[in-house]
Design goal:
Oligomer: single chain
Radius of gyration: 23 Å
Distance between the termini: 52 Å
Strand content: 15-25%
Structural class: alpha/beta
Length: 565
Amino acid sequence: MESTLGHPWLASYPTGVPPKIDIPDEPLTATLERAAQRFPDRVAVDFEGQTTTYRQLLDEVERAAGALLALGVQRGDRVAIALPNCHTHVVAFWAILRLGAVVVEHNPTYSASELEHQLADSGAVAAICWEPTAARVAEVQQNTQLRHLIAVDLTRDLPRVKRIALTLPVPAARKQRAALRGPVPAGALEWHRLVDEAQPLPATHPAPSVDDIATIQYTGGTTGTPKGAILTHRSLGSNAVQGAAWTQFEDGTETIYGVLPFFHAFGLTLCLTFAARIGATLVAFGKFDPASVLAAQRRRPATFLPGVAPMFDRLAALAEKTGADLSTIRISLAGAMPISRATADRWERLTGGLLIEGYGLTETSPVALGNPCNAERRPGALGLPFPSTEIRVVDQEDPTVDVAPGERGELLIRGPQVFSGYWNRPGETADQLLPDGWLRTGDVVVVDEHGFATLVDRIKEMIVTGGFKVYPSQVESHLRSMPGVADVAVVGVPGGDMGEKVVAAVVLDDTNSPAIDLAAVRAWCEERLARYAVPREIVIVADLPRSQIGKVLRRVVRDQVLARA
């Protein structure tokens, strides 16, 4: 192992984990092709019991890429995906990359206005959407560069017996069918028909370059204004290799449960690129439902489960109640929010495996630090830098000044997984990505003498609820347009298994507007905001505390809300 001088975390690495990785010099698509060569008959994707081998997956990816090429999609074009986790999501992701185009992931539950902003910003020329999402995209398509809207019937991804069951004339079948389907907008193309009728991509079609853009992942960053983080084939490939080095999984043997949404950077890497890198079987879940996960555990047991704290708590509670066997799950990786000692102890008691906490950002593809996959893991700590990853802790006001060891400061990260910048936003890129490659995270940490980092504060005023980021300024902007609201500040307070809950401190105007209560606020917000961003509590206040220059002091608001509890 190389010297730990200046890198104290290397001495804390588990045996067998290298200090450096071989940074990939190939596109992401090479990993899928290699998995199909090495493990052709291994199940690559299991969705609701419908299985696809690696050989079958690669064949379908080639046809889907051919279908997109026939529509005129070219190398470098942006193609949007707005789908729940499903078989089609996996195929579309790899097909876009194989074509040399750029994947732009979107939350399929977003409102039409949220989708409009991201689609217009990326300049996507085609969008592959779940039918209900396609209907919302159709409302705003004229304000984007979309040439093709492609609707996906999720029932087509189900096993034949389940598709037949959905046609039964019984209330349960009608309810489930309604939850999966939606009206297809006029002019929209049908995904499965396109792929079924397509010719495979010509073998002579050039593969993407390792330095080509693979994905644009939208993140709110420090301002709350969604901006696209540019991730190349090299950065995403590096993070998959880092994950393989860290977990030391054996290729062709693992079963990964895809309960994290693929449209999120965490789910995209851990469930798509990492799975292909190690030739794992991916069991995909359209939504997180503990009963469905435990049913799948009986059918195709998991060995690796990435998730967030509320998922582990809910699964543990149901497993205890039903006596479900979780003993095949050797490693679980938690991110997006802290894991409590109680949650870790309970999960590890039920599985006999380890619950490992990790840390990262969309801008780091996303994992940058992790706890060791052994008994030295520390619940509540972010962990150690991944192989080939460096960290610094600097003064919060001046990132050129390192703080003394053991003191709190802003975490900086440098490594091959760090993003290339924000799409069409050179100014914000320069603010976040320093000239020497260091990424400003906006998170305040303390690093101990063994190299373990612990999060102690956030410079960013975002709220993390259920693993999703909520940006107060966006919620406030929408609430200020509500009749009867003169002003508002949105903060996060402890919210049990959700991590934080969104609370709105509202100043009423002096008009005769309708009464403002929680139900009215939630109804107003649900028109424009994602469900997780809708306030779960409101507090009526006479005024809001402000700084000398008039800025609302959200920290003071949060303290006042907590004092009222």
